[in-house]
Specification:
Layout: H1 4-10, E1 19-20, E2 26-27, H2 33-36, E3 42-48, H3 58-71, E4 76-80, H4 85-89, E5 97-98, E6 101-104, H5 106-110, H6 116-136, E7 143-148, E8 152-154, E9 164-166, E10 177-179, E11 181-183, H7 188-195, H8 199-207, E12 210-214, E13 221-223, H9 230-237, E14 244-248, E15 253-256, H10 271-280, E16 283-287, H11 292-307, E17 313-318, H12 320-326, H13 339-357, E18 363-368, H14 375-388, E19 391-395, H15 397-400, H16 406-417, H17 434-445, E20 450-453, H18 455-466, E21 474-477, E22 497-506, E23 511-516, E24 535-536, E25 542-543
Parallel strand pairs: 3-16, 3-17, 4-15, 4-16, 8-11, 17-18, 18-19, 20-22, 21-23
Antiparallel strand pairs: 1-2, 2-14, 5-6, 6-14, 7-12, 9-10, 12-13, 14-15, 22-23, 24-25
């Protein structure tokens, strides 16, 4: 690794604007007057087919593409999300890329990094504490204990905290009530952190968080501003709101900032980091979480809508292994050559490409190479993509870093040179009803026949529109493993119904969450968590994060 001062120098960041956190990572201003007037670079969205246990590799592809663009002599930067400790210790392990396409220092990035997630959790839980204090002292506006909706968060998978009771033990501990925890990446504070344009916008949004309803008749929403917590919350986030500068294994600059999940939140890094990157580089590579039906759809319809961003090209990551699973092969049967399964799994890739075409967003397919791929299987993907009229290239960045991704890098350059992104459009207009927005996403993106609203969800939609928030976009929380709400339905299922069992208003983040199926905003650990194999050796080196 190079000292972070040298990495910053490559981007033209002067030393006096750096706030180093050790030798290899630093905070940088979200924007500086000397950068504000620069022309924006090209925005490249990296997304993927529906996730499988076989692996797809959006982060490795993003990093490899960035390194490849740098080898081509392009001023490039990769802008990513920060990993959550929940999946790091749960199913996923490390989340900073892999092989020779990594961002480093990997251990730091995967663990405490620069403390951003801790700050977000602290800001969220400060509001939780102030809510209960407000109730305890019966401060005006009086919160109805039965209608207080603000939970607590922790950046860890912990199913035991999903539903709890707080304030037991007597009068001095407050009023007993049902409560619960979400994982930090599902916090509305995380969404606000990632969607804010600047510090002032962040404070405004934090103040608009609705924590519950008053005891008035009729009841009125009570906000974080009403209980005077927005200023202190912003103070806790002051340093965290500055993007983080690190590097790839090839010493190219990377900005990593924010980290909501795409299955339960909006799945994109911060607006501030993305806009900063567009001023500092000619090509900005960013990713959206999970498959394109979740991450890319939310990137486009929430982040781009709110921030006024227009992507230039989409890179759709696929692997031969994952396509075989979508073609009906189990993970234990992936090794033998099976071109018919690859061809069967192409339906999933084709649906994702069809979805991106609805935004008039040109796509390139990147096959993330695995050593078990046979030439016949790769040729099958290339042939099927050719039939679809889509550019498809192999990328061997895991084994060879930037040199292994030169073909995809050149394809991105060619695509952005020939596209002025003037045709880009969103999936639905602001003035469409919340129910119709949800139905549009279900039918157009998930290939559902329709949606099925619970009585509670239908009532909540009506309440939110009556409150004046009907123009907000929809953020659907659902399984990442299928277009449908059934995680076992691989491929490209059609004819299904998307159930919406719960609706939540995120007034600060400025979107409406529609919860589908059994999706949980507090995950649990698997039977054998990744934490089982992690530790520190006798030389002080962390192991097990790879």
């Amino acid at each position: 690794m190079l000292p972070i001062t040298e990495v910053a120098a490559k981007l033209g960041i002067p030393l006096d604007l750096l706030e180093p956190h050790g030798k290899y990572k630093a905070k940088i201003p979200a924007m500086h007057p000397s950068w504000a007037d620069k022309k924006d670079g090209k925005l490249i969205l990296v997304t993927a087919i529906t996730p499988t246990k076989a692996g797809e590799g959006k982060t490795t592809t993003s990093v490899g593409l960035h390194d490849g663009l740098s080898i081509l002599g392009k001023k490039s930067i990769v802008t990513l999300r920060e990993p959550s400790l929940g999946p790091v210790f749960g199913m996923k392990g490390g989340a900073a890329g892999g092989g020779y396409a990594q961002v480093v220092p990997m251990d730091d990035i995967n663990l405490h990094f620069t403390g951003d997630f801790h700050a977000i959790g602290a800001a969220h839980n400060l509001l939780s504490a102030m809510v209960d204090n407000h109730i305890h002292w019966r401060t005006e506006p009086a919160l109805d204990v039965r209608k207080t909706t603000w939970k607590r968060v922790v950046d860890m998978n912990d199913r035991a905290l999903r539903d709890i009771v707080v304030s037991l033990g007597g009068v001095g501990n407050g009023f007993p009530r049902q409560d619960g925890f979400d994982i930090t990446v599902a916090s509305e504070v995380m969404a606000i952190f990632c969607l804010s344009e600047d510090f002032a916008d962040c404070k405004r949004r934090l103040g608009n968080i609705i924590v519950g309803q008053s005891t008035d008749k009729p009841p009125k929403p009570v906000t974080a501003k009403d209980i005077h917590s927005d200023g202190a919350m912003t103070a806790l986030l002051k340093d965290a709101l500055q993007p983080n500068l690190v590097q790839t294994l090839e010493n190219n600059a990377a900005i990593i900032h924010g980290g909501p999940f795409a299955n339960i939140a909006h799945g994109c890094n911060s607006v501030m980091a993305t806009k900063l990157s567009l001023k500092m580089a000619d090509y900005v590579v960013t990713e959206a979480g999970f498959g394109a039906d979740l991450g890319a759809q939310k990137f486009l319809d929430i982040k781009c809508r709110k921030a006024g961003l227009t992507p230039d090209v989409c890179v759709m990551v696929a692997t031969v292994r994952a396509l075989k699973m979508h073609g009906g092969v189990s993970i234990k049967e992936l090794e033998p050559e099976n071109t018919s399964a690859v061809r069967g799994g192409m339906a999933n890739l084709e649906k994702h490409l069809e979805n991106m075409a609805k935004y008039n967003l040109p796509c390139i397919v990147a096959i993330n190479k695995f050593p078990t791929d046979t030439q016949a299987e790769v040729d099958t993907v290339l042939e099927e993509c050719a039939k679809l009229g889509v550019k498809c290239v192999m990328s061997d960045h895991w084994a060879n870093g930037g040199k292994g991704s030169l073909e995809i890098a050149q394809a991105v350059v060619d695509a952005t040179d020939s596209n002025d992104n003037s045709d880009f459009k969103l999936l639905y207009p602001d003035d469409m009803s919340l129910v119709e927005k949800t139905r549009t996403i279900a039918q157009e993106i998930y290939a559902a026949d329709d949606i099925a609203l619970s009585d509670q969800a239908a009532k909540k939609f009506r309440q939110i529109e009556k409150m004046g928030f009907g123009h907000y976009p929809i953020c659907i929380a659902k399984t990442q493993y299928s277009f449908s709400s059934d995680p076992t339905a691989v491929g490209a299922p059609t004819g299904h119904t998307l159930p919406i069992r719960e609706v939540r208003l995120a007034a600060g983040a400025e979107f409406v969450v529609a919860v589908s199926g059994e999706i949980m905003t507090m995950p649990g650990l698997p039977r054998v968590p990744s934490a089982n194999k992690m530790g520190v050796d006798d030389d002080g080196n962390i192991f097990g994060l790879f």
